[in-house]
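Human
Can I borrow your eye for a moment on a structure tokenisation matter? Give me a protein, with the fold worked out from its sequence. Write it directly below this note and I will take it from there.

Assistant
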Amino acid sequence: TPSDSPLEDSDPKDSFLIPRHIMAEPDYLDDDNPELIRPQKLVNPVKTSRNHQDLHRELLMNQKRGLAPQNKPELQKVMEKRKRDQVIKQKEEEAQKKKSDLEIELLKRQQKLEQLELEKQKLQEEQENAPEFVKVKGNLRRTGQEVAHAQES
């Protein structure tokens, strides 16, 4: 066809704008010979590595979220981290202030139980560390009180 060949164009100025077929068409595009070995793309070991795929996926996700890696000065990074920490701390404080009456009552009870448990532990430690005669005296008192109660009733 006349439009395919740039040499048949009548205007020589337009001839350089039309791409010429510099390379010959490869033989394997013709399906007439099934014995020919078709070339395959080589496998890139970097792109097939799991580490590279994970990093690429993470970069894509960050780009979608608008968290592209930026080269910020260290001072700016530190200041932003402090600001984030401060905002998080404020939110936690607000959450504690907004605790319901039930939560407050549960916390009070929990503190009381912990305090009673600590007192029991202290008494137990004192009894374990007490000399033998003090322990015997306590046992005698208890048995004496039990005998008195039994006689009264």
Summary: The longest helix spans residues 101-129.
